Write a sequence for this structure.
């Protein structure tokens, strides 16, 4: 991950470390020490571009993290930085998703995840943890997509979670089962029912009700 251009023109360059040899081993130290406001981040950002330190993935990620998460009111700045990243990786997307959730922009966080998938960037466990948090704040996993009748999106998200080794819990199961019925994915619904049986979740009434729903929705009865 490397940033190519600087979105704003600082009034002056800060008196910070100017050579790679003097740069601290932990780049986050410099970023956190220097950035107390958007103006500070703007100046440090310009300095890192000038000294070409921003080509280091860890440095670029921490600039993005400072804007997206650590500084209040800097999300627009973070988005301007993100748009200038050449081929953002999962780390960059994860920072943006976390930042949007932190700023209570949960729908935008889910859209960022959708963009991540569309660009063929592989989500990881950190991605799913954040996305599930955003969905839960919207209501439930299926309600987050259901507002736009995006049931297929629920199933695709769940399948990606399984492929990445994400462990399912009762809340996730309850959210996904109605979506399986809506899109007619009875195979996945059958797998979930077997998972429920194998993991002793049969006592959860809501889960069983959702399982019944998928049977009726899937068969059209």
């Amino acid at each position: 991950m490397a940033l190519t251009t600087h979105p704003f023109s600082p009034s002056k360059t800060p008196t910070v470390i100017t050579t790679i040899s003097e740069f601290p081993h932990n780049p986050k130290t410099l970023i956190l020490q220097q950035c107390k406001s958007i103006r500070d981040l703007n100046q440090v950002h310009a300095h890192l571009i000038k000294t070409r330190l921003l080509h280091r993935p860890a440095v670029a990620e921490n600039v993005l993290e400072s804007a997206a998460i650590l500084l209040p009111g800097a999300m627009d700045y973070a988005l301007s930085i993100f748009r200038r990243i050449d081929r953002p990786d999962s780390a960059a997307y994860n920072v943006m998703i976390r930042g949007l959730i932190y700023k209570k922009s949960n729908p935008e966080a889910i859209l960022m995840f959708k963009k991540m998938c569309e660009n063929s960037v592989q989500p990881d466990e950190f991605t799913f943890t954040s996305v599930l948090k955003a969905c839960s704040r919207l209501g439930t996993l299926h309600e987050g997509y259901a507002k736009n009748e995006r049931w297929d999106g629920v199933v695709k998200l769940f399948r990606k979670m399984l492929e990445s080794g994400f462990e399912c819990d009762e809340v996730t199961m309850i959210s996904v089962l109605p979506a399986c019925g809506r899109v007619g994915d009875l195979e996945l619904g059958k797998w979930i029912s077997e998972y429920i049986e194998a993991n002793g979740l049969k006592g959860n009434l809501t889960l069983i009700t959702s399982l019944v729903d998928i049977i009726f929705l899937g068969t059209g009865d």
Observations:
- Residues 32-122 form one domain.
- The first helix runs from residue 27 to 34.
- The CA atoms of residues 13 and 43 lie 6 Å apart.
